[in-house]
User: Fold these one by one.
Assistant:
Number 1:
Amino acid sequence: MAFSSSRLAIASLLIVATGIAGCDRQSDGNVQANVAAAPMSDEVLSDEVTGPTAAPAAPQTGIDRSHKGEMAPTIVFSKPDGTPTTLADFRGRPVLMNLWATWCGPCVAELPTLNALAASLADKVHVLAISQDTQKAAEVPQFLADHGAKALAPYVDDKMGLSLGYGANLPTTILFDSSGKEVWRWHGGNEWDSAAAKALIAEAS
């Protein structure tokens, strides 16, 4: 009887171990499938996904009109004088919101062209370069001046509320019309003083 009980116990342990191994394999497959099926908001998958281990494509670069008509967020950021504001305070004219940071190479590279755009459209479009720096917020005004962007007011979102809210890689630039509705968003850097960029911005007028 003792021998039979021992054999029964061993058999039970083998069944349990096999079951656990099977769950691990299934769990791994599910994790991979979920990763492949749920890209970040600024990523796109290729047209052909061959299996659960297929990786997302590189982050999207360029124009994205899939959010057209959505209202601007009510997330608070700081004016140059440190007082709080939201995008609603800028309604009445189109707003070009650029999310950037001092540590972001592509952001810094496009600052001079964004500055030129802001100077040329000063009476027509609000160009808001909103820093997402969390530890160097006090350095933003001088940083802009040192990088050819004196026409850009140093707005700061030191909690990264906007970039986190949008799930955005930096730089990301979003155009809103005069009523606060999104027209398009641009992922990655751009030459904002180019004729092509100005034509895109004219869509908000």
Note: Residues 78 and 139 are 14 Å apart (CA to CA).
Number 2:
Amino acid sequence: MPTAAPDTQDIALPQEAAQTTTPAKDAVRIKDLHKSFGTLEVLKGVSLTARQGDVVAIIGGSGSGKSTMLRCINFLETPTSGKIIIDGEEVETRADGTPANRRQIERIRTRLAMVFQSFNLWTHRTLLENVIEVPVHVLKIPRSEAIAQARVLLARVGLADKEDSFPAFLSGGQQQRAAIARALAVDPSVMLFDEPTSALDPELVGEVLTVIRDLASEGRTMLLVTHEMRFAREVADHVVYLYQGRIEEQGPPAEVFGNPKSERLQQFLKSVS
């Protein structure tokens, strides 16, 4: 697939698949996204589309704008300009990029779940309490129902025997798996992973990647910022390479990793191999 211009790269289904299956609906679409912090422009017109069931791996060097892009999608950061569309619904914004409808943002956030680098678990609450917090207090799910579902999710990530444990008494890998269970508790339509293994010791990375791999095999829509190149190649449907706030190259993993067109991407892959 030829590389598109930096401000117009939308991720598309492979042509052969599009001819034989019903095209999936867009789960996330961002158009000409810009984000500045003072005079520092971090995102310089990023456009991409992830369709339902896509696993999109976002790679690039430090400072390329990967995490900022994810945080803008979830409005943890306010975009300077551009459009964000979730499940076909465009986020209403003012001229300066700030949300115009706070209730809409709160509703859209229930469709998104983000897993951070640093786990972000509530340290004064057990794993079970961490997982039920949003379902009970935000989604207003009955506590007994939320607890039953939380136990299913903790078992799913291999933590069935840790529901009464506090985060401080768990390994980093266990904490991150608990964070994934917490994200799943809202039954999101899209999961955002911001370098979920970067804070882990090497021997703990595999257990977290195994959980993410299982989620990908279920057909969950995921945008995954990662520095695990082998994992991205094996799991992703599409790979996006960001360089200095722009999409430098994108395409299927076999093309991006096996036949990179951009010299910058070639150098990046050499540096992380």
Note: The beta strands are 26-37, 40-51, 55-60, 81-86, 89-90, 112-115, 190-194, 221-225, 238-243, 246-251.
Number 3:
Amino acid sequence: MDKKIKFIKEAIQESVKSVSGNGGPYGAVIVKDGKIISKAGNSVTNDHDPTAHAEVNAIRQAAHELKSFDLSGCEIYCSCEPCPMCLGAIYWAKIDMVYYANSSDDAKEAGFDDSFIYEECSLPANKRRAVFEQVKIENADEAFRKWKEKKDKKEY
């Protein structure tokens, strides 16, 4: 069996398990060197955590397993095209390849429409649905300045 099919089937299996366990209908599997490092379903409602999407859960597990926040060399197999938050997490984790089964249109048809988030991201902060206001105070950038000066920082 083609490895892509094998791992996508695992992600779909995680999504089905997630629904059975009262999570959302999403699953993800992270693979490195042909071996499954982590697999997870959506646990937003179970964990009372809006960030507990399958992809984020799988990334957290893989990072813990590999003892690294850098998941270069890994692939993620998702039951559905990742949402904007998960896409951001995938990029921050430096995952090399994303495979997915269902499209964002399929998710929309099931009641999960994230297209408004993409639209919101393209708007200036003062035009977004959520109210954004920058609070300018002296030394707000202290942590950034210290980070730039830090000699022993671990880049990510």
Note: The mean pLDDT is 95.
